[in-house]
Design brief:
- By secondary structure, this protein is of the alpha/beta class.
- The protein has a seven-stranded mixed β-sheet.
- The longest helix is centred in the middle third of the chain and has 17 residues.
- The radius of gyration is 16 Å and the shape is globular.
């Protein structure tokens, strides 16, 4: 996104940004550094990043994801990195084995924490059940949860605990919007 696009958003009272840094296809988003810099230039803060992780997608082994992204982080990065955990169909992003999926995410978390990352989980109730079933692990549910429920309601009144998460940190309540030409 351009500086002008971020300036427009900031002028409309959008005060923070979360930018995709890691694509599920097993590579860095080539625009994340410029997007990050542009958001910071207009005074947005915090500027967080998200990584779409999945264990059946390209070069997504935990060490590769974390080491590659860590080597590309801007020197002034001090935000949170959200692990985007959601299903996709083409190709199937996650194993059909819930335990294998849980172990994969736990390994991403432990590797990222070894680099000092502040982490959060982006996941919906539906996605959690599809990927982990009823399995839970404190290394996951102790992180802040940003959940998706596109109900056009910014409150947490719809939140139902899942996966060990008892309260949310943030909610995505609208789908894709065209604001400021983005």
């Amino acid at each position: 996104m351009t500086v002008d696009a971020f300036a427009c958003l900031h002028g409309r009272s959008y005060t923070f940004a979360t930018i995709q840094a890691w694509q599920g296809s097993g590579k860095i988003n080539p625009y994340f550094k410029s997007d990050y810099a542009n958001a910071k230039k207009v005074g947005m803060g915090p500027v967080d990043l998200y990584a779409f992780i999945c264990n059946n997608c390209g070069s997504n082994d935990p060490k590769t994801v974390v080491e590659t992204l860590n080597s590309e982080l801007p020197s002034d990065f001090d935000g949170r990195i959200w692990l985007d955990i959601e299903p996709c169909q083409s190709p199937l992003c996650w194993s059909l084995n819930f335990t294998k999926n849980m172990e994969y995410v736990k390994e991403v978390i432990s590797t990222a924490k070894a680099h000092g990352w502040k982490l959060g989980i982006y996941c919906s109730h539906y996605a959690y059940l599809a990927i982990f079933g009823t399995l839970t692990d404190s290394s996951i549910y102790e992180l802040p949860l940003w959940y998706a429920h596109y109900d056009n309601n910014p409150s947490f009144s719809d939140f139902t605990p899942f996966g060990g998460f008892t309260k949310p940190y943030a909610k995505q309540y609208l789908g894709t919007q065209d604001i400021c030409g983005t």
